[in-house]
Design brief:
Length: about 325
């Protein structure tokens, strides 16, 4: 049995990936401070965890997965703090403390995921420090930018994955199994000529004015636009009713709509059974979009990418 520890655990994408692969595993603990994410995780995996902070934690897993807050790393954040001491990017360093306090024992695999912005000059010092400290703890680091579109999911979600292994073993990203991108139609809840619920129709003038098809060359200081989804959606974040977002759907009549909550969950690699559990925990008000379900999906890791990573880890018998 493989034991995992999830720090900054969100809705438990690593657990979902291992379940999909049929891997016998046990989550020895899960650490997440945001109450709705904890509630979602408990419903998905039948646990009774409570919100808790990663700081001050000490356990002994085989695999440690952490995806620290990305807001101060993200290129979409004009006010990101980067490597400033009070930035949320510093929280990735708490994992170092957790490992150090394990004493001589070390998890064999440490997986860290975050936005591409961690490779920017403003943020890179924190990432470099993390890499150096992991090396001092006996790990060999490998990192690469992975795009969910290369793993079958029509979702342009590029993320940095850093995988650290013990005993001079090095993770080989070239061994990852790539899959053809599936059709976006497989993930959509409604066809363009369906009777779409009114809450998903874009009717706010400020949003309509930003649709790229209407205004391909905007002028002025604010040039962010709304892209129409063709073959894949763009990065799903906590909200869809803002610009930019993951993209919008053109309908057969002269209208556009947002992605639905269920569609966002599908595009993060979760199935409808998972989403139905979430609807029970976070009911949607009649005629309203569910901000909580959007936010839970937008903060997750794409399950299919994690599946590919775990396959390499297991196939190489890194965990013996």
């Amino acid at each position: 049995m493989i034991k995992i520890l999830e720090l900054f655990g969100g809705i438990g994408a690593p657990r979902k990936a291992l379940i999909n692969l049929g891997v016998n595993h046990k989550c020895i603990d899960y650490v997440e401070w945001q109450q709705n994410r904890v509630k979602a995780y408990n419903a998905l995996y039948d646990h009774l965890h409570k919100p808790q902070d990663v700081r001050g934690w000490n356990l002994k897993p085989d695999i440690l997965v952490h995806g620290s807050p990305c807001q101060d790393n993200s290129r979409a954040n004009n006010n990101r703090k980067g490597s400033a001491e009070d930035s949320r990017s510093q929280l990735m360093l708490e994992t170092l403390r957790v490992i150090k306090e394990m004493g001589e024992w070390r998890p064999r695999v440490v997986i860290w995921e975050n936005v591409k912005g961690v490779l920017d000059k403003k943020v890179m010092p924190v990432f470099n420090y993390y890499l150096q400290e992991m090396e001092s703890l006996g790990y060999t680091n490998s990192f690469d930018v992975l795009d969910a579109r290369n793993f079958g999911i029509p979702h342009a979600r590029e993320r940095v994955f850093c995988i650290s292994l013990l005993d001079n073993e090095k993770f080989d990203f070239s061994k990852l199994e790539h899959k053809p991108m599936r059709s976006i139609k497989e993930f959509l809840e409604y066809n363009p000529d369906d009777n779409i619920p009114e809450q998903y129709i874009i009717n706010i003038p400020s949003m309509l004015s930003k649709i790229k098809e209407f205004n391909p060359k905007p002028t002025g200081s604010y040039k962010r636009q709304l892209d129409v989804i063709m073959d894949y959606c763009y990065t799903i974040t906590e909200r869809q009713d803002r610009c930019p977002n993951a993209g919008i759907i053109r309908l057969n009549r002269p209208q556009y709509r947002y992605l639905t909550e269920r569609e966002c969950w599908r595009l993060l690699g979760f199935d409808d059974e998972d989403f139905d559990l979430m609807l029970k925990e976070f009911p949607t008000k009649e005629g309203k979009r569910n901000a909580t379900l959007y936010a839970l999906a937008g903060n997750s890791i794409v399950v299919d990418v994690l599946e590919a990573i775990f396959k390499v880890i297991l196939d190489k018998h890194i965990l013996r």
